Amino acid sequence: MKTSIILSLLASTFLLTAQGRRSFHEDLSSHDNFIVADGYGPDRWGCSFTNSQVHESSSGTRITIGHDSDLKPYSCGELIYRGEDMGYGVYSIDMIASNVVGHVTSFFLIANEDTEIDIELTGLNNRIGWMNIWHDQKQNPISIDLPFDTSDGWHTYSFEWRRSYVAWSVDGNVVLNRTDIPTSSPSNTNYRLAINSWTQVNPEINIDWAGQFKYPADGRVPQAQFRNIRYRP
Ligand SMILES: *[C@@H]1O[C@H](CO)[C@@H](O)[C@H](O)[C@H]1NC(C)=O
Fold this sequence. Notes:
Elements: H1 2-19, E1 24-26, E2 34-36, E3 47-49, E4 54-57, E5 60-64, E6 74-81, E7 89-96, E8 103-111, E9 115-122, E10 128-135, E11 138-139, E12 142-145, E13 155-161, E14 166-170, E15 173-178, E16 192-199, H2 207-210, E17 223-232
Parallel strand pairs: 3-6
Antiparallel strand pairs: 1-17, 2-6, 4-5, 5-17, 6-16, 7-13, 7-17, 8-9, 8-16, 9-10, 10-11, 10-12, 13-14, 14-15
The chain binds 2-acetamido-2-deoxy-beta-D-glucopyranose (NAG).
Residues 160, 165, 167, 174, 177, 179 line the site of 2-acetamido-2-deoxy-beta-D-glucopyranose.
InterPro entries: Beta-glucanase-like, ConA-like_dom_sf
GO molecular function: hydrolase activity, hydrolyzing O-glycosyl compounds
Organism: Podila minutissima
């Protein structure tokens, strides 16, 4: 009796670990393997995630900023990968960032209240990328100068997450490798993988980082584009 309980516990632990460790590729032409966030968003942001702003197409996913939220001045979007318990490995994506001030384009791993590993591009400065580890309620962002404009065409952004380091790459070149900030172990924390695009409107928060969003007066619709999420253990 006891042995069989222990065996089945071992088996389920193994499955959990194995699930988070399988390679995958999502071209983002379909959202079948994602949860499209709808009707919420952090209080400090100027937008609420709304599924009407998330658009799939054969060339990937576009997230726009709109005005159809009941809760906030703007609507924005987020996709969360359905697979849970993401593990160590290499995560990458192609993105075209927004170049509207106050508009953030991002790709990240998140374990609630615990660790986040982020790549964030802001429309305040399209010549840098922010690489961040959020651990123990503290953010540790570092900005990296880039040899291109992040709103001008597809580029590949990735991070390699291991027990003792996180190394970020852009178009296949390592741009930062951090061993100084710990991350919570994936064996006891449920990491999820997500992309989002949101607006910073509060003049008191993150203003030097993202700038303050104002909807473009010229009628253009702010957007961020995403395709090819890849993972390998
Ligand atoms: C990051 O640094 C660690 C520790 O020096 C090293 O073992 C690892 O190979 C580096 N990773 C990359 C991708 O450069």
